[in-house]
Each structure stands twice: as structure tokens, then as C-alpha cells.
Design goal:
It is found in: Cell membrane. There is one protein chain. The chain has 14 helices and four strands. It is mostly helical. The strands form two sheets. The chain has a two-stranded antiparallel ribbon. It has a two-stranded antiparallel ribbon with strand order 2-3. The longest helix is centred in the C-terminal third of the chain and has 33 residues, at 305-337. The mean pLDDT is 89.
């Protein structure tokens, strides 16, 4: 019974599946076990996409979507990059400005949704197109043909290319496979997990997503909670955008353009409900790593980009269908008992 209860935990199943696929791809091609060219980039990209996934998770918790999550990441990176290049700010100062810019965009989005009562899908889709034009315009206007802010503040390369192997206590050093970029992702996971599991705010966000009318009747300020969820989403998207920029080594308009599908894959695979009311914070990281293992494994096997996208699309479709499949089997069992 204990084994059965453990296997009923979606996070355990996803972890086992991720490890099994990692071993499978490694046995197919030993290059997949290479620390410098596969494992390190895999964890670094996983860290960034996990934070982007958490940005999506925050709005999913109230039953909303954020289709502008990638553009919010781009704006945050743009603000940070401009502050480094034109104002000479430090790494931390520029990063704070970037995150605040993302939070502001989230606040504007949430305010529009609350005041207009227009579906979040429509509002965030419109925001996505508006920010796409704004980002392109600003980069072209201020940087010309380069379309990038290239100034690197002190400390940026540390987060970009260093690992725990570069941090030593005497003769003892950390594992070189663990990138420093994983540290901010872990902090975000802890903070978001704590908020949803231990605080009144987290419970109110989930209640708003579970049943909006019941939440209103119970005295929860639902409009404020919608605004709060979108602010958190924008701020986390901003952190993800900075991580993408630091990884790339420059600040460009293309940042965030490829994160839409991954932002849903991680949370949904991990157990977060699209309808709202339930989140899986740790599951977001596991789901993200599963998709990256699949992508990297197929890539090492020489599979093309189109096939990779098809595979990830099928994974998302399967994840969305799990609930209906479980209901169908439960229905069959009930009929068989009758």
C-alpha cells in the first residue's frame, strides 16, 4: 500500500520518468552524460524555465493565463540592459529595476482585467502584441543595427558561466555540474512554495481560483488577489528574463520569445490545474526538467527542431488529458461494479 500511495504522487512519477529518460538517452549516446556540454546547460536552462513556469503558475492559481509572460521577461531584460549601458548601474541595481518593471507590467495587466472584466486570455494576448512592438521599437531606436545592449556589469559572467565547482571551502569544492544560475531558481521555488502552502495570501489566491463566487462571499478581496497574482507573475517573469539575458551574455529583443510553451509545460505537467485552485510548485521544476531532458535527448540523437516541437506539444496534450483519462477509467470501474 505504501508503494501504491507513493506512486499516486504525480511528482514521484515525474521524477522517476525524468531519471529513466535521462539514463535511456545516455545509454543510447554516452555524450548525453557529458557534464560540461549537456548536464550543466540542462540544469542552467531548467533553472531559468522553472522561474518562467512559476510566473505562469501564479496566474494559473487564480484560473487565469498570462500569454505575455515572454514579453514581460523581455521588457525586464531591456530595462536592466539599458540601466547597465546608459546609467552605469551595478548588477544588483539593474536587476532590481528589471524585476520592478516586470511587476509593474503585471500590475497594469491585472488592473485592466479587474476594471474591464475582460477575460485574462484576451488581455494578456493584447499585452503580448503591444509589448512585442514596444521592445522592438526601443531596441532599434536606441541601439541601431546591433539591436542589443551589450554592456556587462561586474558579476554577470559569474552567474552566466560559473558553477558550485568554483566555490570551495578549503580543499572541498562543490559539484561542477550545478550552475550558479540554479541558486535564484531554488530561492524562487522556496518563496513561492512557502507562500502557497503556509500563508493566508496563498490560501486566498487558491480560493479565488477554485471558486470565485464562494471566495467573494467568504470575504476574500478577490479583485486585489487577481491584481496580486499578476504582479507576482510579472515579477517572476522579470527574474526569468534577467536569467535569460545573463545566460545569453547580452540583452536583445529576442529574449523571452521562446518561453510560451515551456511556461505552461512545467506547471501543468507538475500538477497545476489550468482551471485554478491547485498548484504544484516543486512539480513545476520536475515538469520543466522532464521536458528539457526530452528536448536535449532528442537533440543529441540528431532529431530536428520541428520534431522536437511536435514531441513537446504531444507531451503537453497528454498532460492536459490525464485528468479526463482518469475520470474515464473511474467511470468504467463504477459501471463494472454495478
Amino acid at each position: 500500500m505504501k508503494i501504491k500511495s507513493i506512486l499516486n504522487d504525480q511528482r514521484v512519477v515525474l521524477t522517476l520518468l525524468t531519471v529513466a529518460l535521462f539514463i535511456f538517452f545516455g545509454l543510447q549516446n554516452p555524450a548525453f552524460f557529458n557534464v560540461d556540454f549537456v548536464i550543466y546547460p540542462l540544469l542552467r536552462d531548467g533553472a531559468t524555465l522553472t522561474v518562467i513556469g512559476l510566473a505562469q503558475l501564479c496566474v494559473l492559481s487564480i484560473g487565469h493565463l498570462n500569454l505575455a509572460v515572454g514579453r514581460m521577461a523581455a521588457i525586464s531584460a531591456l530595462v536592466a540592459g539599458a540601466s547597465y549601458q546608459y546609467w552605469g548601474l551595478s548588477l544588483v541595481q539593474g536587476a532590481v529595476l528589471g524585476v520592478l518593471a516586470g511587476a509593474l507590467l503585471g500590475a497594469i495587466t491585472g488592473w485592466i482585467i479587474v476594471k474591464s472584466q475582460v477575460n485574462a486570455f484576451i488581455v494578456t494576448l493584447a499585452m503580448d502584441f503591444a509589448l512585442l512592438g514596444l521592445v522592438t521599437f526601443i531596441y532599434v531606436t536606441f541601439t541601431g543595427a546591433t539591436a542589443a545592449f551589450t554592456t556587462k556589469p561586474d558579476g554577470m559572467d559569474f552567474w552566466r558561466s560559473k558553477s558550485l565547482g568554483d566555490i570551495c571551502l578549503g580543499p572541498i569544492c562543490g559539484p561542477s555540474a550545478i550552475p550558479m544560475m540554479l541558486m535564484p531558481a531554488i530561492v524562487c521555488l522556496i518563496l513561492v512554495g512557502f507562500m502557497y502552502s503556509k500563508t493566508r495570501l496563498g490560501r486566498e489566491l487558491l480560493s479565488t481560483g477554485s471558486n470565485l463566487r464562494a471566495a467573494k462571499l467568504s470575504g476574500i478581496p478577490t479583485e486585489n488577489r487577481v491584481l496580486t497574482a499578476h504582479i507576482f507573475s510579472g515579477a517572476l517573469a522579470g527574474i526569468g528574463g534577467l536569467m535569460l539575458a545573463y545566460t545569453n551574455g547580452s540583452f536583445t529583443a529576442a529574449i523571452g520569445s521562446q518561453v510560451m510553451l515551456p511556461s505552461f509545460l512545467g506547471p501543468v505537467l507538475g500538477g497545476t490545474l489550468l482551471a485554478g485552485g491547485a498548484v504544484a510548485v516543486l512539480g513545476t521544476f520536475i515538469g520543466t526538467m522532464l521536458t528539457l531532458v526530452i528536448r536535449q535527448g532528442l537533440s543529441v540523437q540528431g532529431i530536428g527542431l520541428e520534431t522536437l516541437n511536435i514531441a513537446l506539444g504531444l507531451v503537453l496534450l497528454a498532460a492536459l488529458s490525464v485528468g479526463q483519462i482518469q475520470k474515464m477509467f473511474a467511470s468504467f470501474k463504477m459501471r463494472a461494479k454495478k
